[in-house]
């Protein structure tokens, strides 16, 4: 399988019979088993997000599928961003993740905020917990964002409850944007 970003709003995914076999899917399953086809499609979009930062959340999609050989086909996905904001009620979607990273100093956090600018979209809050600064992120992390975060800080297992009870909230929501705006 090969995922290629054609433009900011378009990707091309090449899938071979061997790729399907690795996922225990027969080509006929895509014609007759709609759940397998949908699962494969969403898995491919997730991989496109992780590899190419191709985020389809809050977007309409145009999907084109065409055979390119007897044992392979290409899927072209074009996203049309939704200009209306989507408000989530209740629990956040499963794909929305919470991550926590600790930094030994505020300067380390400042350096990170410059490096990660534009790589992360979601909510971010900054806490002071004991002698560390802890960044709380709610949203998707691409591989590049994850690597950058781990270069400057250390991923920790904690929760918002622990941080709120035992730490001090320094910047609530949009901590990365606030820091980049004022520092």
Structure description:
This protein is α+β, with helices and mostly antiparallel strands. It is 37% helix and 34% strand. It contains 7 helices and 9 strands; from the N terminus they run E-E-H-H-H-E-E-E-H-E-E-H-E-H-E-H. It has helices at 17-22, 27-32, 34-52, 106-116, 143-152, 160-166, 175-182; strands at 2-7, 10-16, 59-69, 72-81, 98-103, 122-129, 132-139, 154-155, 168-171. The strands form 2 sheets. Strands 8-5-7-6-9 form a 5-stranded antiparallel beta sheet. A hairpin with a 2-residue loop joins strand 1 and strand 2. Helix 4 packs across helix 7 (175-182). The longest helix is centred in the N-terminal third of the chain and has 19 residues, at 34-52. Mean pLDDT is 82; it is low at 85-95.
């Amino acid at each position: 399988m090969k995922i290629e970003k054609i433009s900011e709003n378009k990707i091309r995914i090449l899938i071979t019979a061997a790729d399907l076999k690795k996922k225990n899917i027969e080509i006929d399953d895509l014609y007759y088993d709609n759940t397998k086809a949908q699962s494969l499609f969403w898995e491919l979009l997730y991989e496109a997000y992780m590899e190419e930062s191709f985020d389809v959340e809050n977007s309409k999609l145009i999907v084109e599928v065409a055979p390119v050989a007897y044992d392979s086909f290409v899927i072209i996905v074009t996203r049309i961003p939704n200009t209306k904001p989507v408000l989530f009620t209740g629990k956040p979607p499963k794909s929305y993740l919470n991550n926590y990273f600790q930094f030994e100093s505020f300067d380390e956090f400042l350096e990170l905020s410059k490096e990660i600018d534009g790589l992360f979209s979601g909510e971010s809050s900054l806490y002071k917990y004991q002698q560390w600064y802890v960044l709380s992120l709610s949203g998707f992390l691409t591989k590049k964002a994850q690597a950058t975060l781990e270069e400057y800080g250390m991923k920790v297992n904690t929760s918002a409850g622990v941080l709120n009870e035992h730490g001090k909230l320094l910047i609530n929501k949009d901590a990365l944007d606030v820091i980049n705006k004022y520092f």
